Amino acid sequence: MISKDEIRHLGWLSRLELTDSELDRYASQIDEIIRYFDKLDTISLTGSEPARSIKKVSELRNDNIHVFEGDPLEFSKNRKDGFVKGPRMV
Amino acid sequence: MPNHLYHLTADEVASGIKNRDFSAQEYISQILERIEKVDVKINAFIAVDKQGAVEKACSIDKRIRDGDRTGGLSGVAVGIKDNICTKDLKTTCASKMLEGFIPPYDATVIKKLKESDAIIVGKLNLDEFAMGSTTEFSRYGPTRNPWNINYVAGGSSGGSAASVAALECAISLGSDTGGSVRCPASFCSVVGLKPTYGCVSRSGLISYSNSLEQIGSVGKTVSDVVMIMNAIAGTDENDQTTKTTRPIATATTPNTVSLDRIPKYGLHQNKRNIRVGLVKELVEGADPAVSKCIYSAVDLFEGSDCNCEDTSMKSIQYALASYYTIAMAEASSNLARYDNIRYGFDSSPEGYEWNTYFAKVRNNFGEEAKRRIIIGSYVLSAGYYGKYYLKAQKAREMIKQEIKSLFEKYDVLIAPTMPILPFKLGEKINDPLKMYQIDIDTVVANLAGVPAISIPVGFSNCLPVGLQIMANEMEEQTLFDVASTFERIVDIHRSPEI
Amino acid sequence: MVEVKIGLEIHCQLTGLQSKLFCSCQCDYRGKEPNTNICPICSGLPGTLPLLNQRAVDFASMISLALGCSIPDNVMFYRKNYFYPDLPKNFQITQYNAYGITSIGVEGKVDYGVKSTKIRRVQLEEDPGRLIYENASFYTLIDYNRAGVSLVEIVTEPDFAEPKDVRMFLNKIISIIEHLGVCETRLDGSVRCDANVSLEGGKRVEIKNVGSFRDVEKALGYEIARQKTMSVRDIEIRSETRHWDDARKITKQSRAKEEEEDYRYFPEPDIPTILLGNDFLSLLKVRMPELPDERKIRFLREYNLSDHVSQVLIDNKDLADFFESAVKIYPSSPNEIANWIVSDLLGFIDDSKKEEGSLFSGLRIEAKHMAELVRMIDQNIINRNIAKMILSQITKTGEMPSYVLDKMNTSIIDNKAIISEAIESIFESEKSAVKDAKQNPNAANFLLGKVMQLTGGRADPKIALNLIKTKLTIM
Question: What's the predicted TM-score (pTM) here?
Fold first, then answer.
């Protein structure tokens, strides 16, 4: 059974601070779902690698400059002198 | 001029406008009126772009008057799922985390639709970040099934299917990660396609699970879907996972041919000698009301030069676990960027320590999103990566191999799209695992990367049933041929009374 | 003697590219207004996909080859998931080798001097943005101009035992990188180095934030001393990350993290597996530029230079290039040219400039000047003393030696620097007279006479005499 502490830690890794009532509600649901994933246990990890799409180096993007027209962060409300304002680090 | 232009298929609209049977403005004003009348009951739209639609219609009409050429989808009203970026139009993913986001660029498919002169009428409702099967996880309220508004429309592209079924637009785009276009298409009795992975560009699709999702097309008929695909399919330099070659089997050796930047699909409704495999596990696992419909349809097909045979897919037992492991893992990473600093909702970070700020703002994800992020982090975490994620990828490979070998025997595989009939709003919302299990029929195609389409095949208790047809990788043409043949045979063309 | 183990993690920006690693924004972000060198991809906007730069793969492969690494048939990218305000996607696209080899180079070896070190891996990854601490207790300012620039990370085995070995190795790496042409190493922040230090059997301490390579040696020296002191006093050395504080010249503890980071690596789904293959590799090998070791061997063989002179030249690619350009113009005396560069020209190069800008910044001398100068010496048009004076003039004015000579022969020399050169020369050759002059001030006139002779009678005698007298008093 996945513990509340484990869920809290996973929340931290994902920067989700769960309330106690959320932890209560999610704990059993998440546990049930992860138990369901245990269906995969009987699968062996030996054998061929899962296939991925493959590309040759020559099919990749050419090293050319293309300037984006406009400001991608134009609609961001937290700007100061061109910088983006973020929370403090200290 | 027919009374209700909003009944027309995409083909009928485009040719009608080009032939000047009616103008784009006349058409679009009827569409907008229709939306205003019915969407209060359906809630398919998050936002309607009246001004933009009318402007586009006017410009199309002018060009036609001037004798200029216009695109293949001239004037056709299209709705866009709100997880596809539209330049200068709010794109929210039905989430607070993107409340104020106005993309400074168009998704590739949007650029292509605009080039074809389609008219984008608005953004459609979805489960938050495309995670869900009923569109009940939207912060804008659920989308209701036009056939019975107390029932779910399916998800996550509920708005895409419901809007087409309710005649609010001729065609729509959705996204399909584990069935999110086919499920609502089935529940709303319209046609929904998930293309081969890599056949349509994902550039501009806000990621939920990148290795599984594709932008899907919804229409009233197979011909609608073919028209959309002719506009949007093709290699894209802005998406390095789009395919650049297509396998073609010659008489002697298999080969590949370079994929046209824009492949041309046709519509051949009289395909003969179709070899059909009916996937036993999926039909038998469905509700009797559903399988009854499927079998009736199969009877009709068999009468028409089609060889239908029961077949089995042993690896299906792993499909759901594999799908959700991979999807949630990728989601937990894809959703990490939402920290409200560059885009999001109004909330100044000043004064806050950064970890505290991130946790504070990210608490505004909905419940289902949070659950998936946590489980996704779990299956990727050190110690569990081998047990879950790697095994899920192995299972995926097994499924891919098994389906490939089946396509050596069969042209297409069929199954129900959904194992159950549409259900009442709120029925499964408190039991996540039960909700996930309704995806059993659809996840296979995403895991294998093969194209799959859902066509309406009957009703049970006045609720729609959909038939799912799957073909081999990049065999969309086969899929369209078979689907349109079947469509002609079952001959269901109805619209709900709203 | 306690055994010290040092390992290095070097990050090298591929400034030789035009665009960034995953988008077409300009790679060169220096000096630009904040957030003006960005696009939706590198600023992490929703819906964007990474578009891998072909040439970055080429450059990273070249680095791997040059460091003696094996290059796998396929390479893959992975996501490293963690949160930080300078990370636009809150994950970094990088490479990872835990589930099979997927990074661009593994198991290499680099010789430096008489020693060598093993290279654990070379990987290609993206640079994050930059944080600026203005009103640090209220907010942080973020600039994404640098986000997405291509980085090659080079990780060594913990083979180093002394800080000075590290310094030598780093010089070698710089030379290799310069010869490959993939990075302009003198650009600010283009090459960064973190180090891991441990005492025999002890825990590893990571040192970050070391500004220049010079500081790496200092930081290591400090950290080793710190650990040894703790060890002697039986204080436990914790495994941690420390920052180099350049102002106080110490390493200090980073803020302790509340919980351990788990990066949850998994393959980047948006980038396909990249097939390298034999064709790619053989083409790469053919197109590899000449590396420092090869070049040195060639210098010894082709130009008959001494080992020491060759080493000095190739340690700084600018010097080696200058040398070869000069020899191309005047091929008869490569040894003479080399010696002039190493003994005399190097003296004009400001030591501090060695770490910024080009080696020759501020100097107006070009290869053609050097070539001409040596030709004039060979043809006995000038002697070495005059040549030294001419060289000094050239570095300031960029005039051709024959022109400078001409002016010298006809005009009064009142330039203190030139006269000083002449005086230097005379002091060298007339050592006994100098000794005399120290005892007997009048003997200074003898020296003056020699200087006048050397300058063809053109030096200003008053200035010359003053300089001679000053020099005598300080000797």
Answer: 0.90
